[in-house]
Amino acid sequence: MARCETCGNDYDKAFQLTMNGAVHTFDSFECAIHALAPVCAHCGVRIAGHGLEKADRIYCCAHCAQAEGARELRDRA
Ligand SMILES: [Zn+2]
Ligand SMILES: [Zn+2]
Question: Using CA atoms, how far apart are residues 1 and 47, in angstroms rounded to an integer?
């Protein structure tokens, strides 16, 4: 049994993720995303997919990257 560190749920199917050497325990991917997913530097949305990185900032989409001046980034559709 392990307790989700986001919502506190004590769940027998909880899972663990290792990020930057630290182990985190969650009961659901939603809780894991809430706790660990990066946030778009422009609109603040949680990035559960790849996102776009520029320097040490990360954006949810090319529109947000361009709005912050990272013009060379494009969504690769
Ligand atoms: Zn949870
Ligand atoms: Zn965004």
Answer: 29
CA of 34 from ligand 2 middle (Å) equals 16
Tokens for 43, please give them.
Answer: 């609109």
- CA-wise closest residue to 26 among 41, 40, 13: 13
Distance from the alpha carbon of residue 53 to the mean position of ligand 2, in angstroms: 12
Residue 64's SS3 state is: helix
Chain position carrying tokens 């060379």: 72
Which positions ≥6 away from 10 have C-beta within 8 Å? Answer: 1, 2, 3, 4
Q: What is the pTM of this model?
A: 0.74
CA 46 / ligand 1 centre spacing (Å): 16
pLDDT in tens, 41-77: 999 999 998 899 988 899 999 999 999 886 666 666 5
